[in-house]
Each structure stands twice: as structure tokens, then as C-alpha cells.
Amino acid sequence: MGKRAAGFVLFRRLCGEIQYLLLKASYGDFHWSAPKGHVDPGEDDFTTALRETKEEAGFDEKDLIIYRDTPLTLNYEVKGKPKVVIYWLAELRNPNQEVILSEEHTELKWLPKDAAKECVGFKDNQVMIEKFHEMILNVDKNRTNCGCP
Ligand SMILES: Nc1ncnc2c1ncn2[C@@H]1O[C@H](COP(=O)(O)OP(=O)(O)OP(=O)(O)OP(=O)(O)OP(=O)(O)OC[C@H]2O[C@@H](n3cnc4c(N)ncnc43)[C@H](O)[C@@H]2O)[C@@H](O)[C@H]1O
Asked: Which positions fall inside the Nudix hydrolase domain (predicted)?
């Protein structure tokens, strides 16, 4: 059986810039990824995403504006076995809130879209960041065009 994981692509708005959070693994090939982790038996994907984000970055659900209806899924192989990772997009309400790392990561970076894509490296992850970025821009555009005073 393959592995299943879930997490959040987190972004913040700082000085007019959209920045994505990436964490550097303290093990294996020291890869960079958004907060995420293994789905425990009996746990639903969204609960896993919240739990892992608390464990790996220190953020609670109340700290986030979550794009609940539009998760994206990555499928790849780890050591010859299929892995599925479900990501939701979420914005950090307070862009200055501190990230609290766990032992699973040694470093963090908040990066604008193109630098975040370069940092994650994997093509499917880059496509996901691009799609999420489009979502943010579309939501922003619709807000601007809503005719509200
Ligand atoms: N490899 C490891 N060695 C030692 N301890 C470990 C470990 N992985 C987890 N642990 C430990 O296990 C415990 C439970 O962790 P927990 O977080 O509960 O479970 P997990 O499934 O291990 O968590 P992740 O899915 O975040 O693991 P990962 O970082 O290995 O996965 P990723 O897919 O990014 O990365 C897996 C591989 O896939 C590669 N990869 C990532 N994204 C892609 C992609 N899009 N396409 C192709 N390859 C990719 C990465 O470069 C990497 O090589 C923790 O204590 C943790 O420290």
C-alpha cells in the first residue's frame, strides 16, 4: 500500500508581497516542502493537514484563512512506493506570527512564488504553487470587482 500525507501550502502577505512558507527537512535528502505529514489510521486528510501544520510550524486553524474547497493533490513515488499528498491553500492571518519549527526541520523560508518554485524543485510541486498563486490572484481580483464601497 502507498503512503498518504496531507498539509498546507501556507502564504502570507508582507509589504505587498505574497510569500510562501517552506521548511527544510532535518533528514534524508534535506528537501524543502510545505508543512505536511503522514495521515494516521482513522484520521481524515484535513485533520492531518491541521495537526501537521501545528506540529511543524506552530499554527492553529484560527491562525489561518483556509481555501477549504480547492485542495490539490500530488502523486509521486518514494523508494519505489506510490505516495499521495493532499494540500490545501491557507493564508496566515498575522504575517508577523512566528513559525515554531519541530525537530523534523532545521530551517524555514518565506519566499515569493518564483523563488518558492525553485526551492521545492519538483515539477509537480511547482505546478501546484503556480495554480494556488492563480487562485489567490483570482480571489483578490473578484474582491476588487465586487462593487463594494
Ligand atoms: N526520509 C526520512 N528519514 C528519516 N526520518 C524521516 C523521513 N521521513 C520522515 N521521517 C520522520 O518520520 C517521522 C514521521 O513523520 P510524519 O511527518 O508523521 O510522516 P511522513 O509521511 O514521514 O511525513 P512527510 O510526508 O512529511 O515525510 P517526508 O518529508 O519524508 O515526505 P516527502 O514526500 O516530502 O519526501 C520524501 C522523499 O520524496 C521526495 N519528494 C518530495 N516531493 C516530491 C515530488 N513532488 N516528487 C518526487 N519526489 C518528491 C523528497 O525529496 C524525499 O526524498 C518524523 O519523525 C520524521 O522526522
From this structure: 1-140
The string of pLDDT tens digits covering residues 31-50 is: 999 999 999 999 999 999 99
- pTM assigned to the model: 0.94
The helix (run of H) or strand (run of E) holding residue 49 is helix 45-57
**What is the DSSP secondary structure assignment for residue 99, as one 8-state letter?**
P
| Residue among 38, 39, 85 whose CB has most ligand 1 atoms within 8 A, to mutate | 38
Beta strands in 36-133 (DSSP E): 36-38, 64-78, 81-92, 105-112
Measured between alpha carbons, how far is residue 65 from residues 59, 77, 92, 116 in Å? 11, 31, 6, 20
- Atom 23 (ligand 1) nearest CA: 37
ipTM: 0.90
